[in-house]
Amino acid sequence: MTLPALSRRDVMRLALLGSAGAMSACASTGPVTMPSPSSVSPDERRWGAFIPSVMSAQGATRTPLQQLTNLAGTAPRYVHRFCALGDPVPVGDLDAVVAFGATPLLTLEPWKPDGGTGQPEFALSHIASGAFDTEFTRWGTQLASWGKPVLVRFAQEMNGTWYPWAVGVNGNTAADYRAAWARMRSVITDRHSDNVRFVWAPNALTLGTNPFGECYPGRDQIDVLGLDGYNWGEAPGHHWQPAADLFVPSLETLRALDATHPILLTEVGCADGLTAQDKASWIRDFFSIVDNQSRVEGFVWFQMDKERDWRFNSTTASTAAFRAGVAGW
User: Fold this and answer.
1) pLDDT one-digit tens code per residue, 128-175
2) Distance CA 12, CA 97 (A)
3) Model confidence at 208, in pLDDT bands (50, 70, 90)?
4) Which of these, 8, 105, 7, 88, lies nearest to 54 by C-alpha position?
5) How many CB atoms lie within 10 A of CB 247?
6) Helical H runs in 84-173?
7) CB-based contact 162:2 (threshold 8 Å)
């Protein structure tokens, strides 16, 4: 069964497009800087989240980010935002995230979100040849003008099958991916966007994914190693995956590829289990992994009810487990 991740990304992006330039600012504590690319001590670890919207509903007394903070017991230090390459740069959104005291994680996707995987115009060879340099220049110029720290994650999960930039889709090869990444980074950094740090993020090695080592852009091309991983639970085409099985082999592969840069788990989610305690136990195990795996700087939870209820607060037990996990961070 093909992983239905594409629809998840469609919803993520569409839910946030309407918020561009319209988010309300919260108490300002300034942007959070990333740790240096070295071993990460426990007091440097940070958590973050994707939420469907950061806008306040009419009459709401708290913003969604404040509500998230109340649920978790501590404020997120990253807020995730998805944009297609042709979208406007969401300066208003980025400002509001910084005003809240978090660092934006901006995923930049080279596609038309409603077009499915068969979009040969976005083949990696076209990106590498300069077909989208105008768009990269626009992003680099406006992010440089904005001037605050931002993580940019480009063409994630390239080792899956559900994106037009995935290796094996639209004739893409791993060499094409490396060339497209280098082109993107070169054009954006030519705009003097020193505030941008680049995150490379494959999908965790599991059913429906391929090895990602050959797609690694190189030590001089990235600033942060990313990794996405979801426990889909018991469902057709899926099975319950312990957190260790989902993340540890891929983390070992990342460290073997790159001995220097910090690691950020850029998308994390867990479905509900057969009992209310299943997800709570998974979350406790997940925090144990994050706490004990070297160079893991933090994680970004996918806080949305979509194909599965990925939210950490889907049960009382899972909420308590999550709050306990982040309490010491």
Assistant:
1) 999 999 999 999 999 999 999 999 999 999 999 999 999 999 999 999
2) 17
3) confident
4) 105
5) 26
6) 91-100, 124-128, 133-146
7) yes
